[in-house]
Amino acid sequence: MFDENHCISQIASGSETALEELYNTYAVKLYNTILSYTKNEEDAQELLQDVFVAVFNNANKFAADSSVSTWIYRIAVNKSLDFLRKKNSAKRFGIFTSLYKPDSGEVQIEATDFVHPGVALENKEDARLLYQVIDSLSENQKTAFILTQIEGLPQQEVADIMQVTRKSVESLLQRAKVNLKKSLEDYYPERGKSKKNTSK
Amino acid sequence: MEEWKDNILKSMDGADQAKPPSDSFSKIQSKLAQHQEETHSKGWMAVAAAILLMISANVALINSYYSSNETSKTNSDSELVSDYNIYGNE
Prior knowledge:
The complex is a heterodimer. Chain A is built from 9 helices and no strands. Chain A is mostly helical. The longest helix of chain A has 25 residues, at 68-92. Chain A is globular, with a radius of gyration of 20 Å. The termini of chain A are far apart. Helix content of chain B is 76%, strand content 0%. By secondary structure, chain B is an all-alpha fold. Chain B has helices at residues 3-9, 24-84. Chain A binds chain B through residues 16, 19-20, 23, 27-29, 31-32, 35, 41, 44-45, 48-50, 52-53, 56-57, 116-120, 123, 126-127, 129-130, 133, 149-150, 177, 180-181, 184-185, 191-192, 195-196, and chain B through 1-5, 7-12, 14-21, 24-25, 27-29, 31-32, 35.
């Protein structure tokens, strides 16, 4: 049985073998979580490496007041959110990119064509739309939605990761779903109407 | 009417997990090695800076000591001349 706490104490002593063991346990799960934030595989790969570097450098500070899983996920979520803040900040202060399309003069809206590499073919288009509207959520709603609905973590575990109550996670998730649906309606106002019209 | 939105929200259900590249862990090890190198070089720089500071402080102290000795020697010479009126006309 893999003793995670023992693994962390070995990492704190400088063991890269222990780090590799932890990596083999968590890398795939964390990579998928990070990918939902970055929507770009290269960025997700870079952040995954940064997460495990942070684990190695901070293993001596792990207080065992939470599980190792909670601690690692928390590092991954925080690094992902930092990445998004820097990206949004760079966009706001970009001086080399015009806000307007050169031909029509309309405001450019960055189209997100990210399709998760693991999604089933029949769901690809819907998943693409989902990742487009996820950006409209606040950080907490986004995290609650990604961790519960996409990663499938239990609400209590998500509460531990986010350091809030389970009720808060439930509330954040409810609001996230409402906001996502609203965004979908705003993006595709005709879609609901056309479906209504085709029904007998 | 809500069905299409619910379908979109659930579109990731049953999706396969993406896998990070196979060389990901070796890149982590490279970053760790790089971080350790940077930490060591910063340590040596701090030691060098402290030594330089000490040398500068000592040089300033020595300069200050000798310049105050020069001043007091000049002052005592002037006192001798005025006390004994060595260069005065009688």
